[in-house]
Design goal:
This protein is an alpha/beta fold and about 425 residues long. The chain has 19 helices and ten strands. α13 runs parallel beside α14 and α14 packs parallel to α15. Bound molecules: iron/sulfur cluster. Iron/sulfur cluster binds next to α19.
Length: about 425
Amino acid sequence: MKSTQIQCALDGKITPEMKQTSFTENIDEELVLERILNGSLVIMKRKYKSQTSIGAGATTKVNVNIGTSSACVDIDAEIEKALVAEKYGADTITDLSMGGEIKTIRRHIFNNTSVPITTVPIYETIIEHGLENLETDHLLKMIEQHVNEGISSLVLHLVDKKSLEHLKSSGRIMGMVSKGGSFTSSFMIKENCENPFIEYFDEILDILRRKDVVLSLGNSMRGGCVHDRFDSSQGMEIERNIHFAEKAKSYGVQTIIEGLGGHINASDISPHIKYYKSKTKFPLFVAGPLPTDISPGYDHIAGAVGASIASGAGADYMCYITPAEHLSLPTPTQVREGLVAFKIAAHIGDSIKYGLSDKDYELSKRRSVFDWNGQMQYAIDPEKPKEMCPKEGPCSMCGEYCAIQIMGEYLSKN
Ligand code: SF4
């Protein structure tokens, strides 16, 4: 059987993937190995195409969710979203399709991208069998199928009966807002059983280990509004996910934890991340977070504010939010807007984590001499500003009263 990154690290072997991570993230090779071994860094691979590194010492990564819904199926739009995601720098793509020919859509997404792909297998299983007829065996077969298709990572929601009981008395406004968490919980309630992903965790690890697929432990209990503050359900979920992440590591399966996300009061974001980091080394995946509920239509902006705080406080990997959040399935243009907003957030977060980037320095130097083309080389999304700026000299914002020009000559002399 082929060894996973963790198994190689255990043998002291530096793999080509670790070397690549060392090069792209500027981390010493031995340190990469050490971090793979202690679980603080994972390498998500897309066979023969690409890899991305998430966790300790790596830059903050951004995931883009795409995929059809039961209400909206347009394969061409999904392909376009996948292309847009790659073009504007998504580090990973998650296909959440729940409408139309899901396997065909996934194949198109695979054929049109090179970045690592994540899925949430329970989504397709629910569509294929319906919640009423769903059986544990269906879930396990779907996981195997996705792994054999070449996914890089998959999401499981390890909600348990005890935390569902806690949820009843939590007094939350929004209850549970995680789709994967709600599907898993519905199955448990219907069958009056424990979570099948927990019950068959060993078997699932065995499947993931065969192809070194990264396990992502979902955040079923995230808050759905800023007034639903951190509660015992979330606390229990973090503890539980850490327990299962440790088990996965001992099996040689790389794991990340969605330990925070959804809607969080801005002042709680950093303390929560520090709490998570004090508990475990596993890379922290954060959905959003949204620090306000009153930004429909602009949730990508609110989300980017939350994500900047989160990334700066130590989040390793963030899931973007589009302007269509809470409103509709996003269009390709909205995917671009959400992704660019989160690339900016990740960059700001990295400047807090690792210090200012040369890119900011280089752009500013060119800005100071009105080198518009030069500036765009360093812009996160150069296309939009190119449509707005002049060819040369000061822009129309201040015209002849341009501060840079008025003071430039004096300052350059002194
Ligand atoms: S005109 Fe105003 S906004 Fe434009 S470059 Fe000069 S100072 Fe900046």
